[in-house]
Amino acid sequence: MDKIHSLTGMLDLYNDGDRDNLSPKIFEAEKVLRRIFSNYQLNEMRTPALEDTDLFKRSVGDLSDIVNKEIYSFNDRNDKSIALRPEGTAGVIRAIIEKKLDQSAHKIWYLGPMWRYERPQKGRYRQFYQAGVEILGYPEGAPEFEIISIICSIIEEFNLKNCSIKINHLGSKTDKESFCEALVNYLEPHKDNLDIKDLERLSRNPLRILDSKNEDTQFILRDAPSIKDFIDSSSIQMLQDIRSQFSNICSIEIDYSLVRGLDYYSGFVFEAVSSDLGAQNSFLGGGRYDHLCSNLGGRDLPSIGMAIGIERFASLLDTVIPSNRMTSFLVVTSNLEPKAYKIAHQLRSLNKNIILDLQLSEASLKAKLRRANKNEADYAIIIGDEELKTDTVIFKYLKDENKNQETFSIDELFRFYKSI
Ligand code: HAM
């Protein structure tokens, strides 16, 4: 029979023990990120993976690459155009409007898969995970500092090296429009020297030319107008304040050429990049989007947010940070006795902080203990025929050099297990 393969650019995540496997790092990163988000008093939100295609056209923008070229959209059985979400912000705002929560402030986090039909390469997938934060209902000021503080906490917690946060300010809606006009006027006479991709950007989404990888375009852009000349001095001051408050934790660079690929941004924008990542060097991005809620039919809800690309982020982690829960191991030496399963069940409910791995197959005691050591277990609980008869267990200390093993009655075992 022919085998069925996964779709291009979509990963199966499973820890198969291979050293280069990204999965354990992804799982551990998600666990730690959840904890950091709850330390900042953010509330979890889960929105559907499928949404009305119009949601993304009206938020991310139908001229953006994400919607124009990369969206997975199709008609459902009722001929309605639906799309797999390419990002999380639009769904969060849609949900807030629908629940009539757009008159108050919210601090939200989410984690889940996103889909973009991109050309797969290292760090770029067609299905990837994002962990995002959205701070809704607060105008520019404190939330900018809070979001950079969250990013710095993440960088500190994971001890990330060789990374920096680029920040910029796109000004108000009219500042952004005036800058765009000036940029187009400047580039028009250089049209003959632009490649097809940049020419297309010039007519559809001129700000994106600033992201061009073409060296000739970058050369032309050296004398182009800068957003710096179109925004208020207070915006420049805020960029400088953010840099001076956090630069002892992570390198922060003001980059006036930073524009983002989604249409909803206005004001403060940022991206975190790492020199360890290669071509796809941005592992996190975000910014302020004060008009998205009203553009989607809700009230004015000034907001800011960010999303981390989990696969790229996990690839930056050296080792999996071990979680500090204790592991014990229940070894049943003889036939897989029902009584031993009951003991395991009772132990698990007595102390939920301990991971208890029960040997499910028949193997020699030696092989089972080898597996316990491989799993970094602290204890092995051995129940053989003799122990089953006398209601006892052998309690073996696997990591304590001064103790080897002792016999416990079942009651003693329960008491000890509860106390650790
Ligand atoms: P974004 O910059 O499009 O922003 O995506 C955020 C992160 O997702 C990127 O920095 C990258 O790490 C990861 N990412 C994007 N595309 C791919 C891909 N094809 N494969 C692997 N990773 C990828 C947003 O999505 C905004 N919603 C962020 C935001 C939240 N802004 C405000 N609130």
The unreliable regions are none
* Largest sheet, strands/sense/barrel: 8 strands, mixed
Percent range of helical residues: 25-40%
Q: Which structural class is indicated by helix and strand composition?
A: alpha+beta
CA-CA gap between termini? 52 Å
Bound molecules: histidyl-adenosine monophosphate
Oligomer: single chain
Q: Number of DSSP strands?
A: 16
Query: How many helical stretches?
Result: 15
Strand order of the largest sheet: 1-5-6-11-10-9-7-8
β-strand amount: 15-25%
Mean pLDDT: 92
Radius of gyration, CA atoms, in whole angstroms: 27 Å
| Tertiary shape | elongated
Describe what this molecule looks like in 3D:
This protein has 420 residues and is an alpha+beta fold. It contains 15 helices and 16 strands. Helix 12 packs parallel to helix 15. The model has no long low-confidence stretch (mean pLDDT 92). The structure holds histidyl-adenosine monophosphate (HAM). Histidyl-adenosine monophosphate is lined by residues 87-89, 116, 118, 124-125, 128, 130, 132, 134, 261-262, 282-287, 289, 305-307, 309, 311-312.
